[in-house]
Amino acid sequence: MKVINLSETNSLLNQYMKEIRSVAIQGDNLRFRRNIERIGEVMALEVSRTMDYAVEEVKTPLGIAKVPVIQDKIVLATVMRAGLPLHMGFLNMYDHAENAFLSAYRRVNEKGELEIVSEYLAAPQLEGKTLLLVDPMLATGMSMEIAYQALLTHGQPKAVHLCCTIGTPQAIEYLQSTLPNQNITLWCAAIDPELNDKKYIVPGLGDAGDLCFGEKL
């Protein structure tokens, strides 16, 4: 699995990352959602550079132009609820993409162990397509892995891009061990060093779902 950390390159993306992290700005839910969306737009552009292209002709008012156009059949998949603004950022760029949605949430089982539960999946056929699975916070990697395995019930994609706003070394190591497929690329807008005892990313930004949509019970 190839890992790309976009924060290693100076770009406008870092401005959006600064704002979603800032406690002085996070109180504005609309701005937080929009910044997550804009991060998705920037990441979508970066991912597009890796896809297959073919030159197509288009008629203009003055002649014929030849333009390289993406040939991949794209499916955007999202882990709800926190993933929705990031998904919209990608969808703004890949406006002809098909879409898939999954549920995943943490709970402590009867043994006192943290586990991820997925109870909902709506997805198109994935066979031979390019799958972009987006989820803002890649803390342990468990939600991403569960979502990916669930999506495989709808076919084997030709290429997979896992896209997150903030990841951790622990999550990356976990995904590299559980998803050995060589045709998977993990894209992170940033990689933070650690998790706290509640499995939140540090320094991170807090709970992305709550900051987007309000606190949950």
Notes on the protein architecture:
The structure is a single chain. The chain contains 6 helices and 14 strands. Strands 1, 4, 5, 8, 9, 10, 11 and 12 form an 8-stranded mixed β-sheet that branches. 30% of the residues lie in helices and 33% in strands. α1 runs antiparallel to α2 and α2 packs across α3 (84-93). With 217 residues, it is an alpha/beta fold. The mean pLDDT is 93. The radius of gyration is 18 Å and the shape is globular. β6 and β7 form a beta hairpin.
Major beta sheet, specifics? Answer: 8 strands, mixed
Strand content: 25-35%
Q: Please provide the ordered H/E string of secondary-structure elements.
A: EHHEEEHEEEEEEHEHEEEH
* Helix content, binned percent: 25-40%
Short structural description:
By secondary structure, the chain is of the alpha/beta class.
Which helices and strands occur, and which strands form pairs?
Elements: E1 2-5, H1 13-21, H2 29-48, E2 53-60, E3 63-70, E4 74-80, H3 84-93, E5 98-103, E6 105-108, E7 114-117, E8 121-122, E9 130-134, E10 137-138, H4 142-151, E11 159-167, H5 169-178, E12 184-191, E13 194-195, E14 201-202, H6 208-213
Parallel strand pairs: 1-12, 4-5, 4-9, 9-11, 10-11, 11-12
Antiparallel strand pairs: 2-3, 5-8, 6-7, 13-14
Helix pairs in contact: 1-2, 2-3
